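Render this sequence as a predicted structure.
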Amino acid sequence: MGVRRDEAERGSEARERLLAGYRPLPGIFDEMMDPAGRPRRHWQQFLDMLAAFGPDEIDRRFAAADRHLRDSGVFYRVYEDPAGVERAWPMSHIPLVIDAAEWEEVEAGLIQRAELLEAIVGDAYGSAELVAEGRLPAALVAGNPEFLRPLVGVAPPGGSHLRLSAVDLGRGADGRWWVLGDRTQAPSGAGYALESRIALSRTMPDLYRALHVNRVAPFFQALQAELSGLGRQDESRVCVLTPGPLNETYFEHAYLARYLGFLLVEGQDLTVRENGVFVRTVSGLQRVEVLLRRLDADFCDPLELNAGSRLGVPGLVQAVRDGKVVIANALGGGLVEARALLAFLPALAPHVLGGELAIPNVATWWLGDAAARRDMIRKLDEMVIASAFPDHAEPGLSDGVLGGSLDPARRKRVLQSIADRGVDFVVQEAVTLSTMPVWRERRLEPRPFSLRLFLARTGHGWQVMPGGFVRIADGDDARAVSLQRGARTADAWVLSDAPVAQTTLLPSPERIVIKRASGVLPSRAADNLLWVGRYIERAEATLRLVRALINRTTEADETAAPLVARIAALLGAWSAGPIDIPPAKAALIARAALSRGDHDGALPHLAHAARAAAAVIRDRFSPDAWRALERLCAIVDAPLPDGPAESEISERVETALRIVASFSGLAQENMSQLAGWRFLELGRRIERAIATCRFVEQFAETPVLDGALDVLLELADSQITYRQRYVMVAARAPVVDLVMLDPNNPRSVAFQLDRMEAHLAALPRNAEGRLSAPQQVTASAATVLRTTDATAIDDALIAATTSALMRLSDAIAATYFTHNERSEPRWEALA
């Protein structure tokens, strides 16, 4: 008994040390600590186990969680950042712990709210009885930018407008939960919540199991089953529709697509035909019957919605009308995100549902009502003024601002805007959010937070994810809880009274079906893989030219001057730098090729173009390959020292070449050698063959310049092979044979064509018994080289080969990417 008493005393002392200095603000509800300064019952076990770790172990485990997120590539973007920098996920490692009994009440209230919002959306696009009876102002519906008139009268396939919903909650000083807002447009955060859960559960598995934390996998399992079940044809598939990699939550889109087993697509991947919606793949058009939408509805169809959108799918609205596709959430579902609606929900709930809201929302007054406008303007200093509709008001008011914080000039502008168009504004009661603990500087501190919870409609009704996405303010101002303004995030642990069964979307080991393919390859992904290969290979060619230029400028021999002039001319024709710099200033030409981002052939342009193309298909590269691209961009963005500095230029070239080589090697060794890898390889081979043709044209021209053949061997990385084979000074015929015709030289044009023939033969569309268009171009060019002697290689044959290689790129695009629809070229290769 004495031993147990000693352990209890030590545990109590450890917890006291952990909580030392934790002081909730007066009058604020704290999630962890009651008003008497004691830990709440459902937090005690968590705190005891955390205290037993000690500060060093806590720091180690939290660092491991950060490392997991970093290695998984979890990031977000800040829209106001002009550079569009990817930022590391700002995780706060202490979860919000929610008691099982309290969770049951929250869950019931959220389901009630989801039913109410579904009824309002259905009425707005259907009979409009709520407006006709005066229960909703017509201006609140018709004046809402998310009210999409082309969808009026269109019943969504499957019968429900809302299949996903998110609710932002805050707890007031009295301990009650309040709804701060609803998210029905394209609710975000569930994927981040899942990744945060994985990171914490792996770094604190003992604590996670001991607390009986409810798993979130069953929620995603139900969502997956529901969406998959909406398809009616066996060959159809479910896709996640994303705006693209520049969206702030693109990582989540890609992550959810992989986790749920759905295909990630952008609008340009899809096409609407008379018999449905299809995704363009390298194997042809594949039917899509269900879209999980992460793109704002207004941007989904430029024909009937936002004509300026380049993110959507022309004809998608008509496909919805025809019942060819189910969209979750349905187009127009964002209507009920409007803050103005919060002013009417308390009165609508008894009429629509027959009862009061179980979880009330923050008190809201819509200023489209004249009486409310007069009354609220007198109280403006104590109220929060905000946009009535998403992104539709005075700049800076989308998240709300306390009236008393407005300076006189801005207050005057806001009051005038309210007088002009009161329908665009609401005022809300200033909310004081509760606090929860964060780990900072090796101690716990209270910080305000809001909690986003998620719901999914299933065949058995609405299901709430037992956990959520917590946003924590960095300071004491609870209104600043926004990732775009520096907040941090945390997981939410919903406790169970009994052990929780392990659930995962992954099959058990004994039920895994062996697969050796990675599913369909969208044409856009293949297109970007091809261009990643081309950009990387073009960057290597530019670097080799710069190195050859610097090597010749450091030679004292005057015979090098003509070679310097020729290399400089090729860099100019290559668009790697300005053409008005005299060859005598070769170092300036080299500097331009390494630092000028405004030239298509210069290293900065090529490196960033490769990275941009790879970002669209980031999940197809290993983390090491992606980091190689990041390092290449970092190298080219670093300023070169002023002055000639040939040594610094040479060092920059060698460093960049090593990174390029590492990326190519990682892609070669780490990518599964399926269709995606073949398109990457085709891009590399096409660009290498074109570059080699240009090198031969410039440096094997007769009469041959002194030292030109040595330059050609250097550019083609074939010096060692030549010396071993001939043990003699460079002569035109054997050099040209080696770099143009030798099928065993991995740098020769013939070798590239041979590899391209193999890749094209392995791609789809070869079952018709005849060569595809790309195969025909490749076979013709390869046959010419195989039947040509080195002495017969002249400018005409080189030009014909180069032209064939460019036609090959166009033929690949026409066959696998455009599907007979117009496609705009990225840039004219080696024009």
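Summary. The longest helix spans residues 41-71. Residues 108 and 358 are 8 Å apart (CA to CA).
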